Amino acid sequence: MKTKVAIYRNRLGLTQGALARKAEISRRALCSIENGTAVPSVEVALKLAGALRETVETLFGDDPETLVPPPDALSASVPTPPTTQGSRWQDFRFVDLFAGIGGIRLGFESVGGRCVFSSEFDEAAQRTYEANFGERPSGDITKIAASEIPDFDVLLAGFPCQAFSIIGKKEGFANETCGTLFFEIERILREKQPPAFMLENVRNLASHDGGKTFRVIRDHLTALGYRVHAKVLNALDFGVPQKRERIVIVGFLDDVPFAFPDPVPESERKTLADVLETNVDRKYYVRDAIRNARLAKLKDPDFPKPYVSHENMAGSITPRPYSAALRSGASANYILVDDERRPTEREMLRLQGFPDSFKIVVNYSQMKKQCGNSVAVPMIKAVARQMLSALRDDEANADERQREE
Predict the structure, then answer these.
(1) For the domain that residue 346 is a member of, what is the CATH number?
(2) Other CB atoms closer than 10 Å to residue 281's CB: what's the count?
(3) Do 142 and 65 share a domain, yes or no?
């Protein structure tokens, strides 16, 4: 029995796995129906019609107008959308939520992604984003309906971690994320059902409130049908001289085999000498009193330069051959180069792995805040490569299984 299920599924940009979940049937059953080797029951036919927003007669009718045309005619009459099987991950679409200055966007553009929507609340960050990507992000995501966002394949978000104040008060599972910005991600995933997502947050998200916060996030993502993977990654392991540990959460609608990227070899990692500028303007140097006070507390006065130091909780100054994590709200002298000066705007961007072509259009204070809120681009690139490799392999394997059946 010939059907047009595959045609209408492809027109909507759905994978077999995505349609199978919408219709509440197995992927194997859907494959057999699309191949014409199995006849669906009335119940399954109705579910497929509802999921594809077509009539049963359109999908399964045997009149000449609803028969599947020959392959040659099909390729000539039905244009291939940008996200159909076989080509979806060559030119995939993503949305950049809580976009900051676009660090996550850079990572996914590097593997062929195309941004179709961005959102960022902070106006200064919007200016930097617009200067570098030619578009001003939409504002408050809480005021943007999911239906207003273009269709996409991957959701990306470096969302702020606000306290989940309702956790543990037994108001009910549906209310556990209300009032938090994670809820905005959840509602968009629920309506748009993209094949994949990647979220980034501070390391402490995993342990916040005794682990309850992260468990709620994982449970809610799983309830939406996603297979969730999470791991704390360190920017130091991916080529930038900054110790910056962040939790990365990756999810797939299909059961996609996935492994987080391995650290890059030592020989491929940049050192402080690679990112520090020469002939730095005197305005970045601290007053003698500050410098002398720092040096008096220095744990290792013979530590080789260049180094970056910061004052720890105990009050001692610890030199390192790499930077501590950049922080948006830290004091002006939170980290110092050789205990002499603050890092320049360009150096902060380099510590995050941004290219030197990245435009600086805001003042020092704003740039410090923006870099502190951003991501280590090389780490995101590594995750993006792993995700795309996994998605492409899964698609190829699905096509192979379909041919065998």
Answers:
(1) 3.90.120
(2) 9
(3) no
**Does residue 362 share a domain with residue 331?**
yes
**Taking 60 as the threshold, does the pLDDT of residue 87 lie above it?**
no
DSSP letters for 46-67:
HHHHHHHTS-HHHHH--SGGGS
DSSP for 178-240, written as a single string: TTSTHHHHHHHHHHH--SEEEEEEEGGGGTGGGGHHHHHHHHHHHHTT-EEEEEEEEGGGGT-
Yes or no: say if 248 and 231 are a contact pair by the CB < 8 Å rule: yes
- Whether the per-residue pLDDT at 340 is higher than 60: the answer is yes
pLDDT digits (tens, 9 = 90+) for 216-259: 899 999 999 999 999 999 999 999 999 999 999 999 999 999 99
My answer on whether 139 and 182 are in the same domain is yes
User: In 3-state terms, what secondary structure has residue 303?
Assistant: coil
Kindly tell me the burial class for residue 389, based on how many C-beta atoms sit within 10 Å of its own C-beta (0-12, 13-18, 19 or more).
middle
User: Is the domain of 117 the same as that of 215?
Assistant: yes
Helix 377-404 with 27-35: angle, nearest 10 deg: 50
Looking at the structure, tell me whether residues 105 and 198 fall in a common domain.
Answer: yes
Distance, in Å, from the CA atom of 325 to the CA atom of 188, rounded to the nearest integer, reads 30
| Residue 113, token pair as written in the block | 């992604």
Whole domain around residue 276: which residue ranges?
Answer: 272-373
Output the DSSP codes for 26-47: -HHHHHHHHHTSSPPPHHHHHH
380 and 369 co-located in one domain: no
Element (H, E) at 96: strand 93-97
Report the distance separating Cα 384 and Cα 77, nearest Å.
34
> Are 220 and 180 found together in one domain?
yes
Q: Which residue has the tokens 């360190």?
A: 234
The pLDDT of residue 29 is: 76
What's the domain count of the chain? 3
CB-CB neighbours of 54 under 10 Å: 18
- Which amino acid type is present at position 214? F
pLDDT of the residue at 402:
67
Q: In this structure, is residue 401 part of a structural domain? A: no
Task: For residue 45, tell me if it sits in a domain.
Answer: yes
Residue 370: in which H helix or E strand, if any?
Answer: helix 364-373
**Are residues 62 and 28 part of one domain?**
yes
Catalytic residues: 161
